[in-house]
Automatic annotation (TrEMBL):
Keywords: Lyase, Metal-binding
Domain HpcH/HpaI aldolase/citrate lyase: 18-241
Signal peptide annotation: none
Gene3D superfamilies attached to this UniProt entry: Phosphoenolpyruvate-binding domains
GO cellular component, one term: cytoplasm
Species of provenance: Roseicitreum antarcticum
Protein name, as recorded: 2-keto-3-deoxy-L-rhamnonate aldolase RhmA
Top-level taxon: Bacteria
Family, similarity comment: Belongs to the HpcH/HpaI aldolase family.
Organism classification: Bacteria, Pseudomonadati, Pseudomonadota, Alphaproteobacteria, Rhodobacterales
One Pfam family named in its UniProt record: HpcH_HpaI
Keyword Nucleotidyltransferase part of the UniProt annotation: no
UniProt-recorded Gene Ontology molecular function terms: aldehyde-lyase activity; metal ion binding
Amino acid sequence: MKPLRQTLLSGGRLPAAFLFLDQPDVAEIIALAGFPLLIVDREHACADMAGALHMLRAIRSTSAAFVMARARDGSPAAIKPLLDAGFDGLMVPDVRSAVEARAIAEAARYAPVGRRGAQFTVSRAALYGTDAGHAEGGHAERANESLLLAVMIESRAGLEAIDEIAATPGIDMLFLGPLDLTTDYGSFGDLGSPELALALRDAESRILDSGKLLGGAALPDTSANTLFKRGYTLVSAVSDVGLIRDAAACAVHRVQP
């Protein structure tokens, strides 16, 4: 099977489930349902690094799904443990400039293209040192080629800097985060803002014109399939919290006397 990055760069389109609950059992259930991509959250979720690793192992044990992680921020300290754990891709929230994007790209890849810490002698991603990290065709080379690196655009400043961020070497995807964008557009929490809708469509066009991958989230009035038709290659379609909440509400409705 192709790595996640190559799957999307070659034209693949993947719906994703976001995992906010620090529950490996829930992650397994959603993976078994057939989602091809799961994203373990460390920005808003309560999961610590050990919890994120347990969820990664749970998914790997039951499914061939790709697994990404959303870091709490773009610092090397937030990025390195997720990469060393062996996630297929990394998502970084609220990137606002090419300077930030460049620092993230350097932290996410090994030399000579980046400055990722070279602890492949002990990392899980390098099979605890049994995968010759520095050798030709070894862990470091494969990691540089296969890691999908996505940055989230979640502010007006980020939207204004899309062209510069997209031009940053090492950034594979720009992922539009509409809910946080409502703050800058004066419609906090209201995804129906006409001004925001226009800004998102303009952002979509600029990202696609740049040649970088476009990612985003399905909205109440915009399905994942609609976004795929508009050129998105990765769409966050559901979350573990949303699935459980909606299923519980339906169950209560069915059993009411």
